[in-house]
Amino acid sequence: MTPTEDDDTTAIPTAWLFTPGTDPEHFDVAARCGAGVAILDLEDAVAKDHKDRARDSVIEHLKTRDVGDVRCAVRINPPNTVTGLRDLLALADSGVAPDYVVVPKVDAAATVDIVAEVLADAGLVTGVVAMIETAFAATTLHTIIQDARSPIAALMYGAADMAGDLGAETGTAVLAQARSACLLAAAAARIPVIDTPFFDIGDAAGLGIDIADAVRSGFSAKAAVHPAQIAPIVERFTPSADQIDWATNVVDTATGGVGTVDGQMVDEAIARRARRILARARR
């Protein structure tokens, strides 16, 4: 199921911070560092023996949290595993819904539908974020999106698992191709895409390059694995005053057909990008 043509594909928070589900004393870090979404992780960040404890901590947080500007997401384990089913049923039984459920290793539309429909049956409304992190998903993504009966709030590209599935190293062309496939399929369906985290926490320069590429490539948001990564993500995804002025002039000019802004020809095609900039600015 895809959004309508009028939907704003940038309309999700720009910075998503992963926090291990075993670390409840840091569940509020996302709010303190300026992230738009706190992703409480029950999957990769939690050892097998600690899954039950993490699940209990996350459910307790959902029941007691103050709902404010920072949204809460829960990344469950894959729903085709016993642990993932326990995560899903625990959310359903809790009576409280996070703003988003992040579903890892989505390879079929049925995976999205199971999560959405189980929660809906419990009377809970939440956005489903489908993680694309396998070669199969990257090559069948259009079908996954079109066949899903339930809305997909966003896609999240998972580079680490994708690299493992492909047997590829970071920065290789095949990973770039998988990333592009995710962007293309999502753009065709007008679904926002969240870029994978930058995992080298100490490389500030590399993070800046990575964020800049995500913005230029058309990602609507980026995930992070450390609070220090949030401010650069928010800053780069927030249009500057010059960008807002340029976009405003382009949109105004394009309403009359072809024109020029700063000596460059602009038309409706350029105006579409300008409107995305203005939509980000409004957030």
From TrEMBL:
| SUPFAM superfamilies, per database record | Phosphoenolpyruvate/pyruvate domain (SSF51621)
Heme as a keyword?
A: no
In this protein, which residues make up the domain named HpcH/HpaI aldolase/citrate lyase?
Answer: 16-227
- Please tell me whether the keyword Metal-binding is annotated for this protein: yes
Tell me one GO molecular function of this protein.
lyase activity
- Which residues are listed as membrane-spanning? none
For activity, the cofactor(s) needed are: Mg(2+)
User: Keywords in UniProt for this one?
Assistant: Lyase, Magnesium, Metal-binding
Q: Which Pfam families match?
A: HpcH_HpaI
- Write down the PANTHER family for this protein, in alphabetical order: HPCH_HPAI ALDOLASE_CITRATE LYASE DOMAIN-CONTAINING PROTEIN, LYASE BETA SUBUNIT, PUTATIVE (AFU_ORTHOLOGUE AFUA_4G13030)-RELATED
Tell me what this protein is called: CoA ester lyase
Species the sequence originates in: Rhodococcus navarretei
